[in-house]
Q: What sequence folds into this?
């Protein structure tokens, strides 16, 4: 029932707060890797200011192009620790969200917004420190004429998001962790970071990834051949 | 006569300076709303540095792809408080404007540039604090071979701009106010801001937009239905 | 043999270090002009943080979409002062490079990366001050399954780059200087900057480019006609 | 588990063939409307030749950029009446599918392909009459190095597709009907077409949609005002 | 007042029918050249079938994203020989127009549609021979919720269009001729075509454009230098 | 010296005509594969009409945005069997080529044009059967003001092309074969086609690619696991 309009679900099961707190410690790239390289939204989703970071449970919004009515409906559903996530029925880059809605969302406890449309009042939002990831920045206003949905599954920037899923966003983009997998993914992310810390030390000391990861044999089997220099290469091409 | 080449108009009627000063107090989104949601340039126009802000009377420039000759012609027409605005005869992203032209424009009193092409020397322009809104940043140089026009009506990023119109630009984009409407729009923007201040307070206190704006009835009439939770939703779908 | 896979060339002739040091003094736009307006990469290549600047000799990398294996092979080839430059066999925006590879590249002495794909861990890279120019920022991870090449000629963002060429990158984009022309281009850039310094002074004093560059006659010959004002223009159109 | 790699599901529940046959009678736009305006893939998906039309049950494929291995795995899962549908782990426009795979797919009974990547050998495919909807046409070949999945839920061109769902495609694009809703949607489409036939007759006879659909009152309430002519409009603007 | 909503103008002055008939004889490229290379809409506007051709007087429509209500209002304003032209308040690619509206438009005498949004039912429209130029083809349906305008000046695909202007469209795109200039432009187009006929004969006979247009001197003055062959070129580069 | 302006080379070494005739027998995808999957131009290059096909030796053209002067210079260099190939100094989509130039090119014996800009008069070109591959179709005219080059190496749509190289183009795109490799690539293409003929027969008879190519073991080693059905999959996920 992706894309169904006319429904607002009041109560949704959210990922457990301990897992959310754990996931908040990791970056988007790490979590995506820890999930087997899944869960990312399309890379056109960018933060409105550098170093923005958010991790919360999704209140999902389905809206129509040029219409931001459902963001007001969603405000009522937001609980502390939530992040609002909006997908649209067709591609749109109007400025659906600005500082008034951000004031309301913050008052409700929301930690940010991920919107597959545009954001405006970005100077004010930056000053407020209210992080938004969007496909565009656009002063264009919207109407309030057609209902969508709140807290039904949505597609946002090419990713499937259920209400209550964990959404983590930073400079690298946005990733969604299904609520049922939150604990497992947080643990995998922690293991990955521990392992990387060791690798980082070795690489910083000048060791090569080729040796750290043991790639030389597989590269040779895959057909990589070393040539001494450009002259040798030219020679063999004659 | 949009797009006519070969003409430079020396004197144009500019919006009155009091209205320009008034409009300078407001953001792009507010002014766009105060004009009945009109006047915005396309959202691909972005400032070259964060927090850039400009408000001035337009000296319009019509140029050809890869040719920045008319920017030099325009320099002579610039008066203190003007903002240069450039449209092209076809889509182009060459670096038509850099720090030398910015030095000249500033010496003439210009407050900024809006260019539907690219800008270069952006590090120097940022240091100078000379704001530019452009479709791209590009080191690519241009020729000076074909004449366009200065101070004739142009289309820039999808908006119609007459010489002397007020152009306001900030982080949210660029908006044009026809000179004859400058006073009226400034007044409407002031009213809008006053009203928003009150709404902002109520939202910050936790009131919902649904109640502040009285949306609950219209939402219901438009077909929005509340469901208790996901179980109830699943139940009714059987 | 552009795009050939399976070869890694160990030793390449690099541009002489004196010329590289000279070129490092100039911006991308200046160098591009000094080369007769050639050498630029496409403007979609953007630095991951403002004010990034790098100048080095190219270690070239040819990679396949979604596969960053060759970046590890390239690490071994990097010498102090090198800049890694990566082109792909088809358009791709996956996050091929992150903080671990940056740690390794820096340990080898590399001064930066130009990658016609995406970069991730951008917050960490910014903190490290390791500059990257890329077509996108994307948390998306990659596989290590298919070999490409290192230190063979590549096309990166529409420009032809040979190993050992000088690559200069800043806020305005990226430019490549063929190694054989490095000294000549550095000298031309110096001459250009010297000339511009004088022009800048005159423009800052209020002189017009029309007079500084002597454009009035050529503009008239090219058909530019001055009109007193909008009324005069309307009159002649009757 | 969207985007999970390494799994091929042999048997999936398909929509009932009677509903598929019913849905095949209608165009993409009609079915999308009959589903409450949901189910469409992004409009960048285009047929490789005009008047292409297909309706089948989905065998879903999840593939990595530049890698078409899973299309071979999918061939074994195809049954008569199926349509193959491929989504990727990141944006890619390589030519993953050509006339050899089409020969194999047709031999298995497949009625077409919907691929969020590119297609090649389009002249041969057109001659075969094997319809493909893709994001691009591209001669670029692919590797067979990394496994994805077959017959797990995928996102293709922004739409969620489960194995066994009905996928209908024509000149207007591609729509997916969840298998559980196939009969209901077919019935709704039939009702819609019946109603439209009557409207079409009235419109062809010169009646206005304003009257056929009874829009005049709602337009007036929504604020539409009629003005006699341009002079009257200019007059009231004074 | 570009972009004003809420107004429908019943009667507009149209270009004289003799000039429209004259302009119908020429292609888009010829008319654009005859106007001093102005008047073209952006090249993303494409016909929905090859060899589509239309020339008519514009009934202009201003619509909001995802909302096709104003097309119904426009139907009433259409007179025989008109072409409907639609611009939007922000970028949108929903399928605002299909075969029912085309049936109505044709019954009113309209000769085609130019729409800066998408079209659907393209197979039916092709069969009807009702030509449409659009930015996309998309099955996506729209709502009827927000009023725009009919017969006020609009921006469509970057061009300014007044009601009653002549709009000519073919395989090469779309061009607008201001109504006051219709006769003059038709005459200039005729002169251009006459001249081209002669040039075409000479070129077909093997004469070079260099000689027909007398370009050799200007090329030399502009700096073009002929070199005998690649060896000579390599020689002088030493 | 990519991108150097001001030079026209009269005589260039062309690939031998026997190899060109051989290569003309194969499609773009086959030749690209036969070259080790290299040589393709970017997929945005599309033929102006379906089933266009051309194979010739390149006369290369380097032009500036909005300026088609060099196409006239190139006409003189064209010999029977040549194909003109144009790259630009920066991205441009103006209509640089139309039916007059096509008349001239055909009179000189050219077999087609590949242009990284736009084409116009496409209806006339289609009627003439003069094939063009371009990035866009656009009525927009150009100036003749700035010199580029003819018969120097160029980058066109991301590929490096030397004068005299073989360029093959069809519905799938455009591929360049370096003149020194023409014979070798033609032979490899022939071998590939012979091999594919056999595979095609087996696939048409219902054999699976998995068996024809012997993929089952490598798929298993790469981690692909078969699951009986969706129930079994759900079971193991508990």
A:
């Amino acid at each position: 029932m992706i894309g169904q309009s006319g429904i607002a679900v009041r109560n949704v099961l959210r990922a457990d707060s301990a897992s959310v707190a754990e996931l908040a410690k990791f970056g988007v790239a790490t979590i995506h890797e820890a999930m087997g390289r899944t869960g990312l939204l399309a890379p056109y989703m960018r933060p409105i200011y550098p170093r923005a970071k958010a991790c919360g449970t999704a209140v999902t919004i389905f809206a129509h192009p040029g219409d931001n009515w459902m963001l007001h409906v969603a405000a009522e559903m937001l609980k502390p620790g939530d992040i609002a996530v909006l997908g649209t029925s067709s591609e749109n880059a109007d400025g659906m969200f600005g500082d008034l809605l951000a004031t309301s969302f913050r008052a409700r406890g929301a930690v940010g917004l991920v919107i597959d449309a545009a954001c405006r009042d970005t100077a004010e939002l930056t000053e407020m420190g209210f992080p938004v990831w969007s496909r565009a920045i656009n002063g264009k206003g919207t109407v309030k004429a057609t209902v969508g949905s709140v807290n039904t599954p949505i597609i946002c920037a090419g990713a499937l998001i259920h209400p209550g899923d964990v959404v983590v966003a930073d400079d690298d983009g946005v990733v969604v962790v299904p609520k049922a997998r939150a604990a497992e993914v947080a643990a995998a992310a922690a293991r990955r970071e521990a392992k990387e810390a060791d690798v980082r030390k070795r690489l910083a000391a000048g060791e090569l990834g080729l040796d750290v990861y043991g790639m030389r044999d597989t590269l040779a089997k895959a057909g990589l051949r070393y040539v001494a220099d450009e002259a040798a290469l030219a020679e063999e091409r004659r």
The CA atoms of residues 10 and 77 of chain D lie 6 Å apart. The mean pLDDT of chain D is 97.
